[in-house]
Each structure stands twice: as C-alpha cells, then as structure tokens.
C-alpha cells in the first residue's frame, strides 16, 4: 500500500495524529503543538473519547483517534466470548462517536465501520481483532487522503499565481493536499491565517503546516480579516467544514461566518471543502456545541480578563449558502444550492 501522507508536513503523518500500538493509543496534543511536542497516552477507549472531548486533537484528528480507539477497545475485551466482545465494542462505538455532539454523525461513520470489521473478524475466528481494526484505520486514512488529494487539486487550481489566500481554523488533510498540489503546480501563494481562539489552531497548527511545506504564511488575530482582505488584496477565502448540510449551510469553527460576510462585502470568493453530510439534510439537524465559557477568558492557560466576568463559547457557527461561492469536493466544485448533484454513494468522507 502506497501511503498517501508522503511529502506532507510532520503533524499530518499518520503516526503523528493518533496511533494504536503496544496496547495504548498515542495522540499528538494539538493544544500545545508546536510550542511543545507531546503525545497523550490513552489506555482505555474512554480515555480516547475524553481526549477527543478535551480537544487534545481537532479537525480530522478525532476521526483517526476514533478508529484507533476502537482498536484499543478490541484489545480491552480480548478473550471474552464473541457475544460479549460485540456488546463491548458496540458500547465503545457509542462512547467514542458521541464525544463531541456536533460531529457525532460523521464519527458514527468511522466507529460503525470498525464495528462491522470487528464482527467479521470474530466470525472468522480471528484471535486479535485489535490488529484488524488498526489495519482498517490505516486503510480509512489512506483512502481519505487519496480522495482529498482530488479535492486539493480542484482547490489549488483556483489559486492565482502570486495570489493571497485566507484560511480559517485547521483544515487538516485538505490543507496538506492543497499545498502539495500548489507546490506541484509551481504556484507561489501567500497565506493569511486568523489565530482561531481560544485554542489558536490557526496560528499553531495551520501556520505550522503551511510553513513546514515551504509557503509564505502570516498569522493575524481573529479581528483582522476584513482589514487584511482590503489591505493585502486577498484573492480567495477557504475553510474546511465540520458539517455541510444538504441545504448548503456550513457549520465550521466559530468565526467562519463573520469572515464569509467580510469576503462577500469585498467580493472575495469563499470556497468550503468537504462532502455533503447525509446525516444532516438541513441545518435544523445540527446541534451547535457550547463549550466551557471560561476558556474565552484566558489564552493558552494565561488569564486575559477579569475572572468574575462572563464568557461565551460556541465551538462552531453557521454560514448560510448565499455566502458560499462553491463547495469543493472530490467530485468537483458544486453550488451550495445544488448539493443533491453530488454522488454520495461514490463520494468521500472529507475533512
């Protein structure tokens, strides 16, 4: 199997996202990377779910961690009867997939596939189901990277030579793939990354990957996008999405909505990457995760406000389809109003 993470930044290598080996799952702690390189060690599937919930890994990271967590769950219940193992793994799948509410539908796709593989392995008399699930996790990654590579090409094709592109949050795989394709096309592109508080994924993760892959990158604060669009001549705004509803609404890291409004005002196209979610035909099916409000009163653990005042922390916001120029998928670019034209059966789960 040719690994699709070749030539990508260090933190996009499979082993550096989440990895099951030696009876534990090691997850890169993205809350502190690149200031500190540390992996959180999980010894139970509940600890994997906790790591996902506590934002140890974000963007596509939780989906990788979920599959590796299922491998760990298989190790936890080894030696039990087939019936007991299936029951244990079914419960583990529920715990892991619901670690964060907004993305639970996508997480279920991952854990359900692991559960099917486990049942087949048990029926075939496999002694170590954990290895079967880990192999599936690697295969899932490879397939996803390959298909997102197609998305990366469609997106990089939109970048003008000597252009300026603004991103939002950490687009993970699509970020690496669009950069690899832009490099292949010989395009010299400048990138501007809002910091994306309160976890600073844009400044720490996105900017690190862009830098590591050899492109010019500038970090800006979350209240600078409109000024930078006008002052620096931004040509295109792009983000991934945590949910793309069938009706064209986009749920992504909070802040995406206001950047999309600014882009619309400045006549800058906004392209979101991903595939439509079958589990979310309309925006009414999406639950926005509200996180600990105290996190907005600090920055990387340092208090930045009077600790007696209130905070407010929605993890995501919703961008309506009229602000979205196009949805870039592995099958091409679609209007947000015509997502029914996307072949979901042949499509990819893209993050």
Helix content: 25-40%
How many helices does DSSP assign?
A: 9
Radius of gyration: 20 Å
Give the beta-strand count.
15
**C-alpha termini separation:** 22 Å
What labels describe this entry?
9 helices, single chain, seven-stranded mixed sheet, 351 residues, three-stranded antiparallel sheet, globular, 37% helix, alpha/beta
Can you give a write-up of this model?
The model has no long low-confidence stretch (mean pLDDT 95). The chain is globular. The chain has helices spanning 45-53, 61-76, 82-97, 104-123, 129-156, 173-184, 201-212, 225-232, 256-265; strands spanning 18-21, 24-28, 39-42, 164-166, 190-194, 216-220, 236-239, 243-244, 250-253, 270-273, 298-299, 302-303, 316-319, 326-329, 332-334. A 7-stranded mixed sheet has the order 6-5-4-7-10-14-15, with helices on both faces. A 3-stranded antiparallel sheet has the order 1-2-3, with helices on one face. The protein starts with 17 loop residues before the first strand and ends in a 17-residue tail after the last strand. 37% of the residues lie in helices and 16% in strands. It contains 9 helices and 15 strands. Strand 11 (298-299) and strand 12 (302-303) form a beta hairpin. The chain is α/β, with parallel strands linked by helices and 351 residues long.
């Amino acid at each position: 199997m040719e690994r699709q993470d070749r030539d990508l930044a260090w933190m996009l290598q499979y082993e550096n996202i989440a990895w099951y080996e030696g009876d534990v799952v090691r997850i890169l702690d993205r809350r502190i990377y690149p200031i500190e390189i540390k992996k959180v060690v999980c010894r139970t599937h509940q600890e994997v779910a906790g790591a996902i919930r506590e934002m140890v890994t974000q963007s596509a990271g939780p989906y990788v961690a979920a599959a590796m967590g299922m491998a760990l769950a298989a190790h936890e219940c080894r030696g039990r009867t087939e019936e007991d193992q299936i029951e244990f793994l079914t419960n583990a799948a529920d715990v892991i997939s619901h670690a964060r509410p907004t993305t639970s539908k996508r997480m279920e796709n991952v854990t359900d596939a692991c559960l099917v593989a486990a049942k087949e392995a048990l029926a075939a008399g496999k002694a170590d189901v954990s290895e079967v699930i880990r192999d599936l996790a690697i295969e899932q990654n490879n397939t996803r990277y390959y298909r997102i590579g197609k998305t990366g090409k469609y997106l990089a094709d939109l970048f003008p030579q000597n252009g300026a592109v603004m991103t939002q949050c950490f687009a993970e795989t699509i970020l690496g793939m669009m950069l690899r394709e832009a490099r292949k096309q010989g395009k010299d592109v400048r990138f501007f990354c809002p910091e994306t508080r309160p976890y600073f994924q844009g400044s720490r993760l996105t900017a690190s990957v862009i830098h590591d892959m050899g492109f010019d990158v500038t970090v800006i604060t979350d209240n600078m996008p409109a000024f930078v669009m006008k002052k620096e001549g931004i040509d295109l705004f792009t983000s991934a999405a945590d949910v793309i509803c069938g009706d064209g609404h986009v749920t992504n890291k909070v802040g995406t909505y206001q950047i999309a409004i600014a882009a619309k005002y400045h006549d800058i196209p906004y392209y979101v990457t991903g595939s439509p979610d079958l589990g979310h035909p309309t925006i009414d099916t999406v639950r926005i995760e509200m996180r600990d409000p105290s996190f907005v009163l600090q920055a990387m653990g340092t208090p930045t406000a009077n600790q007696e005042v209130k905070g407010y922390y929605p993890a995501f916001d919703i961008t309506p389809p009229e602000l979205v120029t196009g949805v870039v998928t592995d099958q091409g670019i679609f209007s947000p109003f015509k997502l029914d034209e996307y072949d979901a059966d042949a499509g990819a789960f893209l993050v």
